[in-house]
Amino acid sequence: MTDQTLLGKVYLIGAGPGDPGLFTLKGKTLLEHADVVIYDALVSPGILAMINPQAEKINAGKRRGRHSKLQGETTQLMIEKAQDHAVVVRLKGGDPFVFGRGGEEMGDLVEAGVAVEVIPGITAGVAAPAYAGIPLTHRNISSSVTFVTGHEAAGKYRPKINWSAIAQGSETIVIYMGIHNLENIIGELLKAGLTPQTPIALVRWGTCPEQEEITGSLETIIEKMKEADFSAPAVAIIGHVVDLHSVLHQCRPKVAQ
Ligand code: SAH
Fold this sequence. Notes:
The protein is an alpha/beta fold.
């Protein structure tokens, strides 16, 4: 169904992982000219400050267990706003197309006849390790990397993900949304043949002023995580590239609020 009376266009913009300095120029220009901005919980205050002061700002954020707007409602809102506003921005953490449901939202908008465009952002799985001094690939250490969600958790863990194939086929593994389920995931990776000594790092609030990381091995990390009271949002990086952290973490960039 195409509604010819529609005025606006929706821009699905990736806000990046936190540090406002990592936001794209294209995204910034659109925020400055936006009529409506619908944003997620993980978008940093420094990026929200770039929004046109006259724009309507709507928090559609959802964090684990706290849904302030359901997915369908958010899409409906975008469709409504596009009927009488020219520039509607949907601002999402990291990259919209990496575990961000950007594809689903875009599909729904296309189906509703709304013009839509995506502006990528730097995904947390790339930025958080970088700010922690962990290169995801490195000559002689890793020539492959897999991004995977660990979210098949929430009490009823059913491994739909082929952890065995990932363990065997990828030298670096980056897990999003995996903190709550890390013990199960590590169990799967050990079953698949990774050794208990395999290095792992957890980076939380990557590229934000409160960034924190812990490192260990598949054998020790759960204990360390509990000791440090470590919680989401965090990515886990598994593989020998994590050994580079001990030297390269000294070069961590400074982060603006
Ligand atoms: N689209 C986002 C990912 C959304 S899923 C992106 O491309 O980055 C949410 C998960 O992303 C969190 O559970 C966490 O695993 C990861 N994440 C998001 N921001 C993060 C940050 N600043 N530091 C570490 N992990 C982060």
